[in-house]
Amino acid sequence: MEVFPKTLIQRCLVHKERNLKSYLSTRHWSEVNRLFNRLRRSQGPEDARDVLAEIEAFLADKNQQARDTVKEAGSQLLTLLELDVPNTLNRTLLSTNCIENLFKNLRNHIGKVCRWREETDQADRWLASGLTLASEGFRKIRGYQDVPLLIEALERKMVQDKNSQKKVA
């Protein structure tokens, strides 16, 4: 946030769901699954906020730590959904799987290096070759046709943020 202070952060719903399950008994897992699936399929910010409120209500009498972890993540669970873009992008962008896959492939490739020579561009070359190899396994973003709508929504958000900063100043 120091380098890119206006960055929008979307928390991974897969990790948050897994984290919540660690606090709950297995008998509650199916309800957590159902609620998070509804959150992933949400269309629009109002629907997403309603589902998040349902998750918090469900956790209220189950486990305080689980409820606290949802409150801590708060609006960062809804960042993409608040942009009000079609939910066709949700499956890919509400999870960090695509990033983690890239990191795993880079680790497999670069992890073979025993000694880095700082005086050369060796690290850059290994990184470039690792990214090239990893890119062979890349797939299209599900709902890629709606990426232009996401870009428009992000641009609108930037303009809104600039306007709100001008009003404060």
Quickly give the structural class. Answer: mainly alpha
Terminal CA distance reads 21 Å
User: Which whole number gives the mean pLDDT?
Assistant: 88
Largest sheet: none
Please work out how many helical segments DSSP would assign.
Answer: 9
- Radius of gyration, taken over Cα atoms and rounded to an integer in Å: 20 Å
Outline the low-pLDDT stretches.
none
User: What's the helical proportion of residues?
Assistant: 55-70%
Oligomer: single chain
Give the overall shape: globular
Strand content: under 5%
* SSE pattern, N- to C-terminal: HHHHHHHHH
Counting DSSP E segments of at least 2 residues, the number of strands comes to 0
Furnish the topology, listing elements before pairings.
Elements: H1 13-23, H2 29-41, H3 45-60, H4 64-73, H5 79-82, H6 90-93, H7 97-110, H8 122-135, H9 147-168
Helix pairs in contact: 1-2, 1-4, 2-3, 3-4, 7-8
Your description of this structure?
This protein has 169 residues and is an all-alpha fold. The chain has a domain at 13-90. The protein contains nine helices and no strands. The protein has helices spanning 13-23, 29-41, 45-60, 64-73, 79-82, 90-93, 97-110, 122-135, 147-168. α1 (13-23) packs antiparallel against α4, α2 (29-41) packs antiparallel against α3 (45-60) and α7 packs across α8 (122-135). The radius of gyration is 20 Å and the shape is globular. The mean pLDDT is 88.
